[in-house]
Amino acid sequence: MENQPSRLTAIALAFMAVIWVSPFSWLVLNAFNPLSTGQLEIPKAFGFDNFGLAVSGNAGRQFLNSIIIAAGTATLSVIVGISAAYPLSRLRIPGRNAFLWTLVLLRMLPSAGVLVPLYFAAQRSGLLNQLGVIVALTILNLPFTLLLLKNFFDTVPIELEEAAYVEGASLIQIVTKIVLPMSRAGIAVVWFFSFTGAWNEFLLPLIFARVQDAFPMSVGLYAAFGQQGAINYGFLTAFSILYAAPAIGVYFLLRRNMNTGFAGVGVKG
Amino acid sequence: MKNQANPWLTGNLFVLALGMLPAILLIGALLYFTAWAFAFSFTDLALVGKKSVEWSWVGFENFERLFTRRGFLESLWTTVIFVFFSAIVGQSVLGFLLAATLRGTQSSIRGVVEVCIMLGWLLPDIVAAFLWSATTSQTGLINQLFVVPFGFKPINFINDYALPIVTIANVWKGTAWSYLLFSAALDSVSREVVEAAKVDGATPFQRVWLVQLPIIRPHIATNMLFITIWTFTYFPLIFAMTGGGPGRQTETLAVFLYNQSFSRGNLGFGSAISVAMLLIVGVLSLFYLRMLREPK
């Protein structure tokens, strides 16, 4: 429909792409350079020594912690979200609109604002650990998850469910065989958002996990590059790449679903 | 509305209610914590020391301090500048331009540019902060490519131009979201409408400005709503890059809130800041939601 792109457009786009990825040059050059000094230079040596450091000992443990927190939060949010979003989408529950508006407002709540009460509650119930981080992140994440999932379920035609009921399907069968497969794209998007959100999360684990063994990678990285003095740039850059990889990987796995999911995001906030 | 007479639903009300229970409990907890934050804003609660146990009610004192002491208003101004330039000017405009340009190009170019932009968005905040600190450092990429070769002394960007640098870093990081949303929105504009405008002699600029933009207006409002709020309360990137400094140049409200609550330990005052942020965010979202509804 548009005209063929002019050469100028193509050059401008290429220029932009180069600018966009250029900051990565430093990261990659240092990560694969065993003699890295943190300077931007062409490495004289090449090797994977830094990555070896970045998966062993404390660093490996932090990787595991991050996986537990992110996958746990995403899965818990999606399960809790689905089991509530389906009734919300299908039933005319009194006060439903008020509840949905509450969710919209809660979604906009700056999470830093409830950090202090969250901390006190976790301390009192002995949840200043991984599980506590997962539950806290799920609580913060749930309004968004619920709204999105409800929107996706709204787009599943109820006639299909009627047909299945007539054929003798039970509620569980209707949900697992029809509703969930038909909103697969939406669920994948929600899971992805929750996963990356929890994977990136920095402030909450920083406050909840006081011992180094419990640090996820975000806190570990911040603590390491905040140190004055001898910074091992080779290790840190390799660690950064490993930290960034899963979030990027999950996106490319779900990429096809993402685009269909995004169209749904825009329809109704 | 979906009718109440769906037997597989009405026959299983108990199961459905049971399914909703965990979500209701967790949402209830969130409401409870929010109420608690409001309550804290009227106290002199502290993180450590005597006042962490024997706090007392102080009325509106914390809110008075917001306006009478230095800090809050400056932070608010910093935040407004940061949000305006990085979210509205940077991410939205750039995202839209990219979406509009890339629609017409071959899928291979589109794919490459898309992946490049997505990398920034997918990168964890702390890594992005690390990366941009390195890129703008005295031995970093910008100095080595654009400053030193021309005979200038290396510039310490993060010290001298802190706010512009974090703004650029945030544009770099966040544009992908706006791009994806606008891209999906433009896909939903039917070809016929645009073709008809073309036949009627509309220039490419007119086709975008007078045809496509009005159609995707709800998407624009949604996008603005999300990114304004995100940027307004965005914390890790700025905090990890500058910690609010040098001085207070990059102390946005989120950083100010953290510094007051957890570095200084004034939880009461910190809660007042978060209540103020909440009110500002509320007003903003009402404004955007009106924009979303208007065409109907």
Number of helices of chain B: 15
The chain-level mean pLDDT of chain B equals 82
SSE string of chain A, helices as H and strands as E: HHHHHHHHHHHHHH
The CATH architecture of chain B can be given as: Orthogonal Bundle
CATH superfamily of chain A: MetI-like
Kindly provide the name of the CATH class of chain B: Mainly Alpha
- Classify the oligomer: heterodimer
Counting helices, strands and paired strands, the structural category of chain A is mainly alpha
Count of the separate structural domains of chain B: 1
Anisotropy-based shape of chain B: globular
Percent range for helical residues of chain A?
over 70%
- CATH superfamily of chain B, by name, is MetI-like
Supply the CATH class of chain A: Mainly Alpha
Overall mean pLDDT of chain A stands at: 79
CATH topology of chain A: MetI-like fold
Largest sheet of chain A: none
Q: Which percent range fits the helix content of chain B? A: over 70%
- What's the number of helices of chain A? 14
Stretches of chain A where pLDDT is under 50 for at least 5 consecutive residues are: 261-269
Q: Structural class of the secondary structure composition of chain B? A: mainly alpha
Poorly predicted spans of chain B = none
How would you concisely characterize the structure shown here?
The complex is a heterodimer of chains A (269) and B (296). Chain A contains 14 helices and no strands.
Could you please describe the fold and organization of this structure?
The complex is a heterodimer of chains A (269) and B (296). By secondary structure, chain A is mainly α. Chain A contains 14 helices and no strands. The two termini of chain A are 30 Å apart. Residues 261-269 of chain A have low confidence and may be disordered. Chain B has one domain (60-293): Orthogonal Bundle (MetI-like fold), CATH 1.10.3720. Chain B has helices at residues 7-10, 13-40, 61-68, 72-103, 107-122, 125-135, 141-147, 157-160, 162-187, 191-199, 204-215, 217-232, 236-241, 253-263, 267-293. The interface between A and B is large, with 90 and 102 residues.
